[in-house]
Amino acid sequence: MADLDTLREKIKTFIEDRDWKQFHDPKNLAISLQLEASEVLELFQWTKDNQAKVGKEQEVADELADVFYWVILLANHYNIDLVQALEKKMDQNEKKYPIEKSKGKADKYTDL
Amino acid sequence: MADLDTLREKIKTFIEDRDWKQFHDPKNLAISLQLEASEVLELFQWTKDNQAKVGKEQEVADELADVFYWVILLANHYNIDLVQALEKKMDQNEKKYPIEKSKGKADKYTDL
Amino acid sequence: MADLDTLREKIKTFIEDRDWKQFHDPKNLAISLQLEASEVLELFQWTKDNQAKVGKEQEVADELADVFYWVILLANHYNIDLVQALEKKMDQNEKKYPIEKSKGKADKYTDL
Amino acid sequence: MADLDTLREKIKTFIEDRDWKQFHDPKNLAISLQLEASEVLELFQWTKDNQAKVGKEQEVADELADVFYWVILLANHYNIDLVQALEKKMDQNEKKYPIEKSKGKADKYTDL
Question: Using the 8-state DSSP alphabet, how is residue A111 labeled?
Answer without folding.
Answer: G
